[in-house]
Design goal:
It is built from 15 helices and no strands. By secondary structure, it is mainly alpha-helical.
Length: 444
């Protein structure tokens, strides 16, 4: 897995990702504590609304960036987005009103909505070999897992020495280091392609292509299940640990670290599992396991002694992290198989936006139900949402989903990228769906 780090460009981008993620992890802990300081027992509702605003920014901005990403100076754009995020992080410690949290979260996440899908779409260009790209996906998931584990532990250590407001400074430093690392490499040139139609056609092309691909519709359904679990963890952990159980700031960080630890173990196991089992099997099994854990936590919270609740939550969060990582990590492989280089940014942006529609549902659900009806109700509602996503994935994702799909080229224009680029570069696995393909093609 580590041999892909021999590629200098990818190595620097991977380091940029790790450093920025650690900074973001510190901000996650600090934001939960900030919401609790300002709103008290209503912090879950505040965080739920803040995360909903984050999703609105992602859903609205990402498709626009995806439509024009191939025409933007990639390096300058990524650096600019890091600068904006760093400046917002430096402003957050001075917030004392809930509406200020909402405004700054919108600006911060709008910049992330521009940065993240552009960064993700760059990696397949840096590592064109599918095996290398698969290793990069595993490393990327491991980076997220290490952040989920290391950032709360680091936050717990720092909180023993300083007020949580200083954690936002670590976030700003992370974004600054990320910008410098991006500046240090030469990124592959974007593939500009003339797009016909108006703004609506350009901004929705990636989404339309995505929704016409059966395996990607299945990926979206699995993402709904994953969103139900992660929203419960992110939104309600501070309220659950501090407000309900009466524990301290460090216990909040430790509880979040349990989720990260489970996710990390899954990332280490996935490369071998993906060699033996189909992506669909692993992802749907993980979604089903996640649903079962949420249901068990609902029952356990209602019937066990309150003195046992924190150990139960630690075990449950660990199991949720394990299944969460297994359910979403292979998604990048599906996106790569379903796109060509020229439309990859639009497809990654579509995944980014559509997946966050799932979080737009899950975050307010977890926050509002928890605030109004208690943690057992929030766990139950999350379990139901995860079950819906899992059942939809089983229903709409074809069981026979081969890497290579037979299809026709007769009606494609001679300059179509699937003929020019896909065959010229031996990329026969690009089974993506667009309007020009035959209606009887199995990928439709």
């Amino acid at each position: 897995m580590l041999d892909v780090l021999a590629n200098r460009t990818y190595r620097h981008l991977f380091l940029a990702q790790i450093i920025a993620l650690v900074g973001t992890g510190l901000a996650t802990v600090a934001l939960g504590l900030l919401a609790f300081e300002i709103a008290g027992a209503n912090a879950g509702a505040v965080l739920g609304t803040a995360m909903a605003i984050k999703m609105v920014a992602y859903i609205g901005v990402a498709p626009v960036v995806g439509a024009y990403a191939n025409r933007l100076p990639r390096k300058a754009f990524l650096v600019a987005m890091d600068v904006v995020r760093g400046l917002v992080a430096l402003t957050l410690p001075f917030v004392d009103q809930v509406w200020q949290i909402y405004l700054l979260i919108f600006i911060l996440q709008s910049a992330s909505a521009g940065f993240t899908p552009t960064f993700q779409a760059t990696i397949p260009d840096v590592l064109p070999d599918e095996k290398d790209y698969t290793k990069a996906l595993s490393l990327s998931r491991l980076a997220y897992d290490m952040e989920s584990l290391a950032s709360p532990v680091l936050a717990a250590a720092l909180l023993g020495m300083m007020n949580f407001h200083w954690l936002f400074s670590g976030t700003a430093i992370g974004f600054a280091c990320s910008a410098l690392l991006v500046l240090s490499v030469t990124l592959p040139r974007t593939v500009a392609k003339t797009q016909h139609g108006g703004i609506y056609d350009k901004t929705t092309r990636g989404t339309r292509q995505y929704l016409k691909t059966p395996r990607l519709r299945g990926l979206l359904a699995v993402t709904l299940a994953a969103a139900a679990a992660s929203a419960m963890v992110i939104v309600n952990t501070p309220v659950l640990v501090r407000g309900v159980l009466g524990l301290g700031q460090s216990e909040v960080a430790i509880t979040l670290a349990a989720f990260g630890g489970g996710s990390m173990i899954a990332a280490l196991l996935l490369p071998r599992l993906l060699d033996r089992f189909a992506d669909r099997s692993i992802m749907i099994a993980a979604a089903a396991f996640m649903t079962a854990i949420l249901a068990l936590l609902t029952v356990a919270w209602a019937v066990t002694d309150p003195s046992h609740h924190w150990p139960i939550i630690l075990i449950g969060w660990f199991a949720l992290g394990l299944s969460y990582a297994a359910s979403i990590t292979p998604g990048g492989r599906l996106l790569r198989r379903s796109s060509g280089a020229e439309d990859r940014p639009a497809l990654f942006a579509a995944q980014f936006a559509l997946s966050h529609v799932c979080w737009l549902v899950a975050y307010p659900l977890a926050g509002q139900v928890g605030a109004r009806a208690g943690m057992d109700a929030a766990l139950g509602a999350s379990a139901v949402l995860a079950l819906v996503g899992t059942l939809i994935a089983i229903r709409i994702w074809p069981q026979g989903d081969p890497d290579v799909l037979a299809h026709h080229h007769d009606d494609l224009p001679p300059d179509h990228p699937h003929l020019v680029e896909g065959h010229a570069q031996g990329e026969a696995k690009h089974a993506y769906v667009i309007d020009e393909l035959h209606p009887e093609w199995p990928g439709r």
